[in-house]
Amino acid sequence: MIQINPKNSELKNIIILATGGTIAGTGEEGKTTNYTAGNIDIEVLVSSVRNLDKIANIYGEQIANVDSNDITMNHWLTLANRINELSKQDDVDGFVITHGTDTLEETAYFLDLTVKTDKPVVLTGAMRPSTATSADGPLNLYQSVALAASDLSRGHGAMVVFSDGIYSGRNVQKINTFKTNAFNSIEFGCLGYMRDNIPFFFNKSIKPHTIYSQFDVTGLTELPKVSIAYFHIDADPSIIDYFAQNSEGIVIAGAGSGTFSSNWLEEIRNLETKGIPVVRSSRIGNGIILTDSTIDKYSNCIPSYTLSPPKSRILLTLALTKTKDYSEIKRIFAEY
Ligand code: SIN
């Protein structure tokens, strides 16, 4: 842990846990494409943000420096356990995690379910590398630190700040491949807005998170393996069998309301006797998936409600740390 700016006793103490991504990326001066993510360290990253020392005392720790496509469950366990440990200190007021945007929503949801504190936990990143003309990282980081230092931010679970918006870890989605306004929660809306360093909250997720979540990864060194099978016309059903050989649970990125072909259903039914839960999510990314009487009569099929396939995978992974009981996993999906 390094102290980045001189301590001012009037200000809150915020810890930045850096993991890499485009926000720490560098490339050809001025350009926004063809750069390397996760290339500068926390001290250089923070030094690019003007006036950060006016809003908080900043401490930094480099957890990783990778493109977020290379984030693993080990990084998640490290982050969750580190936040849980540091949050017990009275002189720690909040956390910011810098992260690549490609998988940011997954890490945000994992932390939403596994950190055991109501101190603010804010994730952010950037769509343009630090060397781009008009890089978006500095303002995102400034606003994330401001949000983590605000008394208004407690009890919202893990949040994402991006392009002046505040989003819940549960509902946030990346919605654009290159524009700076790359995150949204579509029909659920944002939690609020950042204007400069001031948060304005308007919504709150009612789903269990952080200290209200039943999941606890303390002491865990690995997590159950859950795979995602993407359905499309003519999709090969043998992928289900393949995943069943090496996974403890399967999430289907189904069509429409979490549906798939009759030959996929045949394969999925076969898993009933093997006790492998299959969560039906949708590749649509919007709307709700409820019990379907023709599919969910098989006792291993569980609707994902509003969770996307990657977020269903996270919830199923954590559910499997607690139980293999189908009805209990079904209850967890209904509740979370
Ligand atoms: C990454 O996810 O690490 C690369 C892309 C980005 O951060 O925008």
TrEMBL record:
Documented EC number(s): 3.5.1.1
Keywords attached to this entry: Hydrolase
GO terms for biological process, alphabetical: asparagine metabolic process
Active site residues per record: T22, T22 (o-isoaspartyl threonine intermediate), T101
Top-level taxon in the UniProt lineage: Bacteria
Reactions catalysed: L-asparagine + H2O = L-aspartate + NH4(+)
Name of protein: asparaginase
PANTHER family: 60 KDA LYSOPHOSPHOLIPASE, L-ASPARAGINASE
The Asparaginase/glutaminase C-terminal domain, residue ranges: 225-333
Gene: ansB_1
